[in-house]
Amino acid sequence: MIKIYNTLSRKKEIFKPIKSGEVKIYTCGPTVYYYAHIGNFRAYVFADILRRTLEMNDYDVKQVINLTDVGHLTSDQDEGEDKIEKEAKKENKTPKQIADFYTNAFFEDFKKLNIEKPEVVCKATEHVKEMIELIKNLEKKDYAYVGENGNVYFDTSKFKKYGELARLDLKELKAGARIKVDKKKKNPRDFVLWFVEKGSKYKEHILKWKSPWGEGWPGWHIECSAMSMKYLGETFDIHTGGEDHIPVHHTNEIAQSEGATGKKFVNYWLHTSFLQFNSEKMSKSKGGILRLEDLEKEGYSPMDLRYFYLSGHYRKPLNFTFTNLKNSKNSYERLKNIISALKKSGEKINNKNIDGAKKQFLEIINDDLNSPKALSFLWDILREEKLNDSEKYKLALEFDKILGLKLDEEEKINIPKEIKKLSNERETARKKKDFVTADKIREKINKLGYVLEDTGKGVEVKKR
Ligand code: AMP
Ligand code: ZN
Predict the structure, then answer these.
(1) Confidence at residue 464, expressed as pLDDT on a 0 to 100 scale
(2) Ligand nearest to the Cα of 26, by number
(3) Conformation bin of residue 117: beta by default, left when phi > 0, alpha when psi is -120 to 50
(4) Closest alpha carbon to 251 in 228, 285, 218, 225
(5) Are strands 318-320 and 275-277 parallel, antiparallel or unpaired?
(6) Model confidence over 62-105: pLDDT tens digits?
(7) Is 248 in the pocket of ligand 1 (CB under 6 A)?
(8) Which pLDDT belongs to residue 454?
């Protein structure tokens, strides 16, 4: 039995799939105009824990992730320039070159973080036909209208349940107290389904398609409705994303999809809380971002970061500091050392001894994906006196099918820049036969926790 917290009901619910033994999941993917940061990856690692947990419970998982390569403007409120077009101009490239480059970078990090690749990866630009069909359907059902500027808007006042997911207070909005109503639309929350180039101040758009409303490009939200329903059906099981998507993007996805089909769109909405940095949500526009590569340069491995993510519950904010990351790195390395020692044991395994622990682990993770508790249970098992080393080893690897921490792999350690520099300086000193300086540098490297080993192939740096 799996229990998950559903944003729609604000309750932990027992998960019941639409079709027995199968789960269909849609994960909102990145806008590929720039590198994804470690805040974004918190959301994807969480979605990975979700799918691994479902797989462990014998579900056949079909997960779809989208790539937004058109339609996301610089403001989530349909204002500003298309993010991809803007970056293309800045870097003097085509939008496709930009999207391809950042898509590759995204999946490289995805792989390094040991995130299982979803069954379907789909691009907005390859699904414009489906989006136009959906908008035509909404227009037919009177949910869409053409504004003064020629853009097509979703009429939120027509969709009775609008804002249910985010518990929006629409009465307050109608009074017009908070949000100024754009003259071109009827209600403050109405959003664009289709942008028409003629009405836009951004001319010479490269990404544009013919449509019944004029040449232009889709709004941001419509892609997720069109692609999720194409690959997963009009009603599917689970939709994931970061909590910032609740009030606008996911609210609008529901309105579009349910408006068009008259059916419930998604049964369970799961949202990840933010990774915070300098006391704010990590984002490009706020306190700055860090990428996996930035951490690697400082000597942290992708698995150190994954361990750090797992140390917090996905529904609670996680505060990123280098001290916190360092603590995770230390724990992760200790864990790997213990497991590597257990591996050599070769004792006989009594399945009776391990079945109970396996069950207990599954119960922990099945209770709303409690990864911090799952990690501490793993530590408890490693300390358990009633289990022999081989049994502990087997259990650790079993748990790792969900944790995804590569506990059985010899990982190449990342040597910090500072250590590499010192090692090069020592080499230079040695070549000059300045052995006093060379020895001093070796000592300094030792104090910093690393050792140099002179091998036949040159010098190797290792952790002490
Ligand atoms: P975006 O490319 O901005 O659409 O973001 C991709 C995914 O990352 C979305 O699911 C966001 O909700 C999520 N996200 C963005 N910033 C953070 C953050 N600081 N912490 C956790 N998730 C985030
Ligand atoms: Zn989406």
Answers:
(1) 67
(2) 2
(3) beta
(4) 225
(5) parallel
(6) 999 999 998 888 877 777 888 888 888 899 999 999 999 999 99
(7) no
(8) 73
- Domain boundaries of the chain, sorted by first residue: 3-276, 298-403, 417-463
| The two structure tokens encoding residue 18 | 């639409």
The Cα-based distances of 405 to 16, 86, 153, 306, 335 in angstroms read 28, 37, 45, 7, 10
Question: Which residue is closest in CA terms to ligand 1's atom 2?
Answer: 30
Q: pLDDT tens digits, residue range 62-72?
A: 999 999 998 88
Is the confidence at residue 179, as pLDDT, over 90?
Answer: no
Contact 140, 261 (CB under 8 A): no
Strand ranges for 71-218 from DSSP E: 73-75, 79-82, 120-123, 144-146, 152-154, 191-196, 216-218
Instruction: Give yes or no for residue 42 CB within 6 A of ligand 1.
Output: yes
CATH code: domain 3-276 is 3.40.50.620
**Threshold 0.85, pTM exceeds:** yes
Q: Which atom belonging to ligand 1 lies closest to the Cα atom of 273?
A: 21
CA of 283 to the centre of ligand 1 (A): 8
The reply to whether ligand 1 has any atom less than 6 angstroms from the CB of 31 is yes
- Residue 30 contacts residue 98 (beta carbons within 8 Å): no
Whole-number Å distance, alpha carbon 429 to ligand 2 midpoint, is 56
Helix-strand-coil split of the chain, %, nearest 5: 45, 20, 35
Instruction: Give tens-digit pLDDT for 407-416.
Output: 998 755 667 7
Place of tokens 């630009």: 125
Residue 282 Cβ < 6 Å to ligand 1: yes
**Which residue is closest in CA terms to ligand 1's atom 14?**
40
Residue of the CA atom closest to atom 7 of ligand 1:
40
The answer, yes or no, to whether residue 202 has pLDDT greater than 80, is no
Residue 199: pLDDT over 50: yes
Residues in the chain: 464
| DSSP-derived secondary structure for 269-289 | EEEEPPEEETTEE-BTTTTB-
